[in-house]
Amino acid sequence: MAIEPQQAAAQRPMEQIVRRYPPEQRYLLAIMQDLQKEFNYLPREALGLTAAHVRVPLGKVYSMATFYKAFSLTPRGRVSLRACDGTACHIKRSQVIIDELRKCLGIQPGETTADGEFSLETVNCLGACAIAPVLVANHKVHAKVTAAAVREIIKSYGGRVDEPVGN
Amino acid sequence: MSQLATENTSNGRTILVCCGTGCQASGSLEVLASLRGLLAGEAGTAVRASTKSTGCNGLCEKGPLVKILPDDITYCQVAAEDVPDIVDGLRDGTPVQRLLYRDPVTRQRYRSHRETSFYKKQHKIALRNIGEIDPGDIRDYLDRGGYRALRTALSMTPAQVIGEVLASGLRGRGGGGFPTGRKWQSCAAADNAPRYVICNGDEGDPGAFMDRSIMEGDPHTVLEGMIICAHAVGASSGFIYVRDEYDLAVVNLHQAIRDARAAGFLGDRILGSDLSFDIEIVRGGGAFVCGEETALIASIEGHPGEPRDKYVFPAVKGLWGRPTVINNVETWANVPVIIDGGAAGFAEIGTAGSKGTKVFSLVGKVVSTGLVEVPMGATLREIVFDIGGGVPRGRSFKAVQTGGPSGGCIPGSLLDLAVDFDSLAAAGSMMGSGGLIVMDDRTCMVEVARYYVNFLAGESCGKCTPCREGISLLLETLTGITGGRGSIADLDLLESLSATVRAASLCALGRTAPNPVLSTLKYFRDEYLAHICDHRCPAGVCRELTEFYIDAGLCTGCGLCRRKCPAEAVSGEKKQPHAIDAARCIRCGECINNCRFQAVRIR
Amino acid sequence: MKIVIDGIETAASPGEMLLEVARRLGVRIPTLCYHEAFGGQGVCRLCLVEVTAGEVSRLVASCTYPVTGEIEVRTTTPEIERIRRHIIMLLHRRAPGSEFIQELYREYGCQENVPAPDPDERCIMCRLCVNACEAVGACAITAVDRGTDKRIDTPYGEASPDCIGCCACAEVCPTKAIGVSRAAGHYTIWNREFELERCAGCGRPFTSRPCQERIARLSGQELSGAQLCPECRKKQAGSRVALSMIP
Ligand SMILES: Cc1cc2nc3c(=O)[nH]c(=O)nc-3n(C[C@H](O)[C@H](O)[C@H](O)COP(=O)(O)O)c2cc1C
Ligand code: FES
Ligand code: FES
Fold first, then answer.
1. Which residues contact B405 (CB under 8 A, 6 or more apart)?
2. Domain-embedded: residue B541
3. What CATH number is associated with residue B450?
């Protein structure tokens, strides 16, 4: 398969990121973190490059990539919505927030909308329990979120929500 | 925070703006920017004030918090628009009344946070500097006696340092409560150098955030503790393993390490002694089980975070097979205080078996949520009611959950329990990292048990059979009960299976996983029975077993629930009793939470 | 040092795994994830025994417990029996498709009738396959995901370029969970298809090219044209290496 120009362009920073660390297994996690941050997911080529760099079989890197929840093997959306379902948030009915997000976006936690705009995740505690329930949209922490607020947040990022919400 | 440098004006006022995660979410950065803007002008010279961004003050719920020294004024829930009034208040010497803290119980306003019931009963050791210093400025830490303990320690022999920690009675704050001095002792005694020191900052317990506050708000105390330990056990390098989600903690720790190196507290021949030691930060990958020490070690080595059997402790065989001391963030924060102030003073605080203080994150259905540090042995009643102000909205207290997913639920009948490592364990729960989650009558205890087991189903490493398969079956059984498909036989299965998971699992995640199930079964069996026999969820949480209705006799027709309902399930004319359409209702509980007449009921 | 297992006194060297001491003594402790070639993993937890040192007794996995002092060991107690029964019950719920597990289920007298999520599943996650794959130097399969979703797979669930088709994984699997489908002249394992090479001696198809290459490399030999199957080779020269490849 011929490498398309676009792909070749994307490859360089990938190599650079990987090579920032010495070729030792102990840097696997750090390399993968940096790649995830740069590309918003771990592209296949990136895993291959990482494995080659630290000289471990691809299977080991894949095992890491699926074990740690900071990593995603599919591209995440432009807007990443992370709803906290930690205990403090759960007790304050975060389930209602998550259900609302599901309904509005039409996706399940862990998925991305077909247009690549929104991805939804649930996380276990963001360390902001005192202002529960919490929703993080692209690093902005929203405190004491309600079902109604969810719709406003989605709208503020250009999403469309049909009203009202049924079952 | 580090990039927001301190502007020092001598003898002037200092305005401290809390920039902890909670306050940032409520807009404290905007408040800080607005203050800086205003003080840069003519107002600045008039009130002679400089600004400082600090770590979390603990009272996140009332954030953003602004403190003014030496006037000793504390403002709550400050918005950028309030800044001109604050500055005006400084000019004419009258605090802005509407921004002062109002006690939720007495409704009285207080000028300083120190006078409030939330702070008065606290005793700050681990949190001593947080909220008082700019974590990005090493001078602030030094001004408050920072690194004095390190100098003292370096003038002592390693054995003397360990002796001091042993004498203090300090026990690990990360959950297990293992005596810290004993751990250091066995590491120092183990041959096979190099030795390592690790700070466990993974803080996976959902609902707890004290370690985050310490790493963000007072990073140098963690470094100082680790350096003292390095001297005591003869370690050459250290690692701080920080939870993936904690971006600000990573930034502040990096800054602190750079500054400590520049000041000669880290690196070769520290302060002219024989000790050479440096610290590296490792970011976690998002896995609760990596808080378990053997999993954490695997993770640093570049493997999936799977624990191993601990028949040989990490203190003897840890990172890369070398002797390794691993302690929790809060444990490290106590070490400089012990060395600086002496073990005897520390050991005077607390109970017979548990010395010193413990930081709790008081969250859930409680009026004042936030971080509180109290002496070991404080009762749950003191923490939840005297400090936390009790349960909000006139609802009734049901339970408090301690110890996170490994802990248990403690009922109201045990509110006078003096909290320490041993008493919590005796009550079927555990200290854990110090999460205290208050639950009211709108919390379903069966659902709470299901919640934790579901959490662990996703967070178990999945290596050993009892944990992976046992939790899966526990979850299926609990989900059946909350879904209205439970039977009495399920309760026996839950109990006997829990015993196996507890006894046979490889690591403490599995061994403590049944705690939420067993403790709710023990104290709240009636709720299980209501789900199974009566097909109802008394708390109105489990969807399949809940129906809300409006008591026409109590409803005044105010319309609040109708307006709040996101599903448009409430209908009714003004001043007439309203009704809920069960088919449209999504059971979110907004109506119940907002009704001032207790007219919304659970069938 | 002296230890006592089920009332029998025996000597053990420090650091020796308890399970191995017991086996030497002829005391049977049930295991699923243990294999002499790889040592203990502490995964299945079937090998739990009660260890008493001084006053304290606790349950340990005998396959990962190193003997470090004088201890007394009991390999069965009512509690241990309950635990083993539960473990078999849980594995039966997970892998009801395995005849081996069905047999154990009967042998242990399990009664709980819990519905199984997947009636065809046969894998019990003992990970012997992963160990075998690593031992032959391929590392084509690993543990993937975590928690209750954990499973054994190749990266992306696709044919792995690292797989050499040695079938050591399928060989070592106690529950026959790893399928090798054979057709004329070739076979498929972990989604990868391999051509069968014929033995130059007896003419029977016996292995794949990558597998031969790996064996040759490990034994430091050149891969010459004519390859013999293990049987023929044993007859001819008594090869050690090729056999040790397949645990
Ligand atoms: C599942 C699990 C999660 C844990 N999570 C943490 C954690 O997030 N932070 C922590 O300090 N200790 C955690 N621990 C406890 C550690 O294994 C270890 O005991 C602790 O870090 C030792 O430090 P200490 O003696 O100072 O408490 C966890 C233990 C288990 C079993
Ligand atoms: S539980 Fe949601 S922020 Fe802690
Ligand atoms: S044989 Fe010991 S745990 Fe499986």
1. B205, B206, B288, B452, B455, B456, B459, B512, B513, B516
2. no
3. 1.20.1440.230
Residue B484: count other Cβ atoms within 10 Å of its Cβ: 15
Q: Domain containing B287: what range?
A: 138-347
Q: What is the DSSP letter of B428?
A: T
Of C17, C35, C36, C47, the residue with max ligand 3 atoms within 8 A of its CB, to mutate for a pocket test, comes to C47
Tokens 């364990």 label which residue?
Answer: B425
Residue A167, domain member (yes or no) = no
Residue B540 lies in a domain: no
In DSSP notation, B287-333 reads -GGGGSHHHHHHHHHTS-------SS-TTTS-GGGS-EEEEEHHHHH
A-chain CB neighbours of B301 within 8 Å are 25-26
User: Between chains, do A66 and C146 touch, taking CB under 8 Å as contact?
Assistant: yes
Interface of C with B (CB under 8 A): 42-46, 48, 59-61, 64-66, 68, 79, 82-83, 86-87, 90-91, 93-94, 112, 114, 117, 124-125, 143, 145-150
Please give the radius of gyration of chain B, using alpha carbons only, rounded to the nearest integer. 26
Residue-number span of the structural domain to which A145 is assigned: 79-156
Confidence of residue C216 (pLDDT cuts 50, 70, 90): confident
Q: Do B178 and B260 lie in a common domain?
A: yes
* pLDDT exceeds 90 at position B304: yes
The domain spans of chain C are: 2-76, 128-244
Q: Yes or no: say if A29 and B302 are a contact pair by the CB < 8 Å rule.
A: yes
B381 and B497 belong to one structural domain: no
For chain C, the 3-state helix, strand and coil shares in percent, each to the nearest 5, are 30, 20, 50
Q: Does C155 touch chain A (CB under 8 A)?
A: yes
Mutate which of A92, A126, A136, A141 for ligand 2 pocket (most atoms within 8 A of beta carbon): A126
- pLDDT mean over A118-140: 88
B456 in any annotated domain? yes
Residues A40 and A90 in one domain: no
pLDDT tens string B188-206: 999 999 999 999 999 988 8
Residues B236 and B341 in one domain: yes
- Give yes or no: residues A50 and A100 share one domain: no
CA distance C95 to chain B (A): 11
Last residue of a domain, one of A67, A88, A114: A67
Pairs of CB atoms within 8 A across A/B: 170
The CATH class of C2-76 is alpha beta
Q: Are residues B157 and B190 in the same domain?
A: yes
Residues in chain B: 603
User: Do B525 and B449 fall within a single domain?
Assistant: yes
Residues B158, B281, single domain; the answer is: yes
> Which of the four pLDDT bands, split at 50, 70 and 90, describes residue A129?
confident
Q: Which helix (H) or strand (E) holds B179?
A: none
Q: Measured between beta carbons, which residues in chain A are less than 8 angstroms from residue C139? A: 56-57, 59-60
Note whether residue B110 is domain-resident.
Answer: yes
Q: Which residue is closest in CA terms to ligand 2's atom 1? A: A86
**Cross-chain Cβ contact A165/B566 below 8 Å:** yes
Interface ipTM: 0.89
Q: A59–C146: do the CB atoms touch at under 8 Å?
A: no
Interface test with A, best of C134, C142, C151 (most A CBs within 10 A): C142
Alpha-carbon separation of residue B154 from B108, B274, B275, B333, B525 (angstroms): 49, 9, 8, 18, 56
Residue of C146, C152, C175 to mutate for B, most B C-beta atoms under 10 A: C146
Residues A143 and A93 in one domain: yes
How many domains does chain A contain in total? 2
Cβ distance A47 to B264 under 8 Å? Answer: no
Asked if the peptide bond before residue A23 counts as cis, ω within 30 degrees of 0, the response is no
Cis peptide upstream of residue B64 (ω within 30 degrees of 0) = yes
What average pLDDT does range B162-171 have in this prediction?
97
Are B541 and B549 in contact, with CB atoms under 8 Å apart? no
